[in-house]
Amino acid sequence: MGAMSRTKEGRAKGGRAKKASRPYVICHMVPSVDGRIVTSRWDIKTKLTPEYERTAQTFGANAWMIGRVSMEPYAGKAKVPARKGGKAIPRTDFIARRDAESYAIALDPSGKLTWKSNSIDEEHVVTVLTESVSDDYLAFLQSKGVSYLFGGKTSLNLKKVVEKLTKEFGIEKLLLEGGGKINGSFLAAGLVDELSLLVAPVADGSIGTPTLFDSEDRKAPARPLKLLSVEKRAGDLVWLRYRVKA
């Protein structure tokens, strides 16, 4: 369970990782005790958001990332107008602003999010695309002032994406907040540095529902972890932090 609540204050405090070619990536999620992350059947959901935000703000991250489906409620439903003529739009990154205090990043390879604004709670929106998106869609993003980065021709190279986030926006610490396939892809690519799991006091038991990590790369090795801390939080939540070993 990621992106439970989006508040600027939730990312304003704490230290930052030292400079590197890519951000320090923390996967921050609220799973059930059996690793499920879809909360629609949990009757404790309303108690989770405050603790999720309180724990998130301790990291001092200056960006958060989720997938297209999770981002849809925040993006809105604007209309993408058809262009009338004009030259083809080059597949180069479009940076609307670089001076934001924090960034909301969407992985949207096919360009399906119809943004009503270029910010969420004053956090500048950056969307990550493939080069297969239409010129109409790129013109739409530019008209809205939404920054976009290309992560590949037809699929996303996540290493390339996170390096661009640091190079173009100075992002040093990134909260990765799901869903399971995105988390799994980052883990398989060796791009998760730390896990922050706020384990909910519920056993879900639903077969086939998304889990914390749903990687399609069956050849990727399982990642060993080192326990950093264990803390009981309000509402019988348990906050586990792990470092992902190299």
From TrEMBL:
Keywords: NADP, Oxidoreductase
GO biological process: riboflavin biosynthetic process
Any GO molecular function: 5-amino-6-(5-phosphoribosylamino)uracil reductase activity
Source taxon at top rank: Bacteria
Pfam families: RibD_C (PF01872)
InterPro entries: DHFR-like_dom_sf, RibDG_C, Riboflavin_Biosynth_HTPR
Positions of the Bacterial bifunctional deaminase-reductase C-terminal domain: 23-238
Keyword hit for Oxidoreductase: yes
Biological or metabolic pathway of the protein: Cofactor biosynthesis; riboflavin biosynthesis
Protein name: Bifunctional deaminase-reductase domain protein
